[in-house]
Amino acid sequence: MAAYLVRRISYGAVTVLGVLFLLFVLFFAVTNPDDIARKAVGERARPEVYVQWKKNHGYDKPLFLNREYAASNAKRYTDTLLFEHYRSMLTFDFGRSDADDTPIADRLLKGAGPSLSLTVPLFILDVVVAVAVGLFVAFFRETLIDRTVLVLCIFTMSVATLLYIIAGQYLIGMLLKWFPISGYSGDSSVIWRFLALPVIVGVISGFGSDVRLYRTIFIEEMGRDYVRTARAKGAGDARVMVAHVLRNALIPIITNVVIAIPFLFTGSLLLESFFGIPGLGAMTVEAIQGNDFATLRTMVYLGALLFILGQILTDVSYAIADPRVRLS
Amino acid sequence: MILVQNLLVLTIVAGIAWVAYAASRDRYWRESAREMWRRRPVALVVVAIYLVIGLLDSVAWVGGTVAEDPTAAYLPRSVIDRIFKPEALKEASYSAPLADKAFYGSDALKHPGKHWLGTDILGRDVLYRTFKGVRVALLVGGLTSLVAIPLALLFGVSAGYFGKRVDDAVFFTMTVLSSVPSLLLLIALIMVLGKGAVQVCIALGVTGWVHFCRISRGEALKLREMDYVASARVLGVSDGKIIVRHILPNMAHLVIITFALSFTGMVLTETTLSYLGIGLDGSWGQMIDQARNELSRTPIIWWNIAAAATALFALVLAVNLIADGLRDVIDPRTRRERT
Amino acid sequence: MTSAAKADAPLLEVANLTISFPGDVGLVPVVEGIGFSIARGETLAIVGESGSGKSLSALALMRLVPRPGRIAPESRVRFEGEDILGLPVPAMRAVRGAKIAMIFQEPMTSLNPVVTVGAQVVEAITLHESLSRQEARARALEMFKLVGIPDADKRLDVYPHQLSGGLKQRVMIAMALAMRPKLLLADEPTTALDATIRAQILAVIRDVAARTGTAVLIITHDFGVVNEVADRVAVMYAGQIVEEGTRHEMLRHPKHPYTQGLLRSIPRPEARGGKLEEIKGVVPRPGQWPKGCRFHTRCAFAYDRCVAEAPRRTAVTATQGVWCHFAEEGRSP
Ligand SMILES: Nc1ncnc2c1ncn2[C@@H]1O[C@H](COP(=O)(O)OP(=O)(O)OP(=O)(O)O)[C@@H](O)[C@H]1O
Ligand SMILES: [Mg+2]
Prior knowledge:
heterotrimer, A: mainly alpha, MetI-like fold, about 75% helix, C: alpha/beta, Rossmann fold, 5-stranded antiparallel sheet, binds adenosine-5'-triphosphate, binds magnesium ion
């Protein structure tokens, strides 16, 4: 188990290095730092401003090899964009935004809270609803109930998230006026009023595919021999479904749930920016619209880092949940 | 440019026709097609209609005079353009569906009763714009998948079949690419490559590629261990032949189902991109994005968003329903009886 | 029914049991109108080739026929004088595991992989009796010892994958017999096991059942098993019983050509590696059963009456009966 963990983590670390290389290629080799600078200071800025901006944001170095230093000097390799990119990302020293010069780390810390306040309830509700409905329709498989829910799932899966948001804002926010259309408050007593609508919209838009996924998992478990054994022992439907089927299905469910946890931090791009929640998702949207490459780069890196972390967590929790893996 | 485009369309149509012909000679596929037609006739008809519209909008040529706008005579115009004559059909601003007067004020329309779905803020006919969106959607979903899937198949199958170094390299690339949350990767790619139709399609292809590569690698790994593949290898059949004869045909069902699912995934993702301002010009996503604030006008302007949303929903739903039907009809378990 | 009459009546009486699955054109029967009975403490073996409907018949006694299978309304199953098929669901649950228990062919997959085997036996007990965990565990331990699991107290806390196939099957038996059921249904309990383990498991079933006074319905396609454990034997073919009788009668004086063929096809030590006189062909699939005697397509002695007319039961002795035109006409095939 320990050896497995070490192997798993080192593979994760190598993957992080790979991701950083991908980001380097995308953000420094494919996009020219000159373009970024020109977009940031404006086409008609004086050359000094332009050079100074590049220097301030660390875009002034050569890509791989700094020929200003002698061949024997290590700085020939370290004083480059590639090395700086790896160094800053690995030490979480993200620098300043390309758009407004604010430190990115500050904004990350400020945005994480609002993001979590939306994603955590959304995530929990989503999993609970989808697992419950999935278990329910799996029990009634091949009946009218099952078929109706399945068709409903396909219908809900065919609507774009954008439309769910617009429809939610229009119906619930504007016509029924149950909740405010958008906004946010740090005050925990009123915050739920702002979060209710995005949470509802989020759950509905993810409903179809999640229910289908869990239904498939449950039906597969229900066909196994040990379920028949449990019935032959005299266990009732509820006990069979919960104590046996759900318990075994927990292993694939955990895999699906744990892997999503890291994304709770990065938030939801659409929901946050539509509902005015000042989280990391909204920040990413701003970065896209403001050509803020430094922030975007950081967000992509963090997303990947959290994903890799999530996968390691998944594998570990998988090992804990399944005695066949745990005890080998 | 027009020539290239028309040739491309011709190639694609010929390719699809050839695949359809090849499949029709195989009893299994013929029966599967018949079964699909029995199960999902409406969805198939809907998709066929979209395909025809998309095709009509893809064949373009220069020429013909348009009395209202002489410059238009020198632009390439597709069959759809020629039917609608959009330059001629323009109004000053909003018009409700089938209205006689402008929506705001009481000016008479230039073409009263001609706008079945009304016009948008710039006076453009909504039905025409919706029709133009068909081709964009097919491009986003279909063409992208059509390019991404063979590539993914190439890498996935060779990784799964040859194993060792090839597999390590492909697997690592896949791990790195799939570590980046797909929407973020997509956005990063488009931001870096620049906005535009080709760039968006490339970005969608790169992100969609990984998922399919993983599936085909797994399947190839499984098939490699099958008895008939092992015996073919013992008999000294070349790897290329084994892949073409035994591995690829047994992955056909996977390819088809994944194609359908990635199609809908990409079309839906495009709407998100449109909202972020990096979508494709003329897509339904853009129509929706432009129209979303019109819902708060009084009186409400609903036809823009309704038209785009309905067109999008109908296409995605039809393809989803077909994918769902395909899962039952060409399930590997029913297939096994044949091989 | 008075208690005296109840004690006299057989433990289990099955009559006219028909099980069908929906097919392309309506319901397709896979078991059709079979009947048999089992006395208290008796062991009945049901023998037949794959697909003849043995497992479904056993599952029907517990009302566990998998969906969308259906037990026809005219079927009768009486257990201790009670109509099993008419019981309300909670009462049926009280029967399962407590009065009728079942073990299956695949010990590898029949146990829940994420629960310790001890907990699974405890569940079988606490579902029917409100015992404390300790008491139930003590009972489970006792059962583990009874079925001959070495290191029983340690083995209670292991997961199924840590046990060998033979031990898993012993756990299944311990679980099945934990509530001292009146009837044990054993569906090919040794088929998936190594030849060396087979005899041990059969001995466990025979001995433990004898000690607890449990009647056994054992399903097999192996006359070796029949010889080891059975008091009486019923042979099934294509959803019907074709011959029944005591072990001695069936092994020494089989009357049905199918029984005779099965007996001849037992691999003998001197002919290792191949079956001697196999019956040609395969069991026709449900829905494709021939008219007349269902065996006539594979019977070496079939004549025109076999093709035209289904045979009725002919009593050979007080205990042996056969469904064959030859026996009906008093001839031997
Ligand atoms: N779930 C099901 N759906 C449809 N048909 C079924 C199902 N289960 C069993 N059958 C049909 O019922 C017939 C009898 O099945 P059963 O399992 O009782 O056979 P068996 O005699 O136990 O054979 P084996 O020796 O292989 O266990 C089979 O031929 C099969 O076609
Ligand atoms: Mg069976």
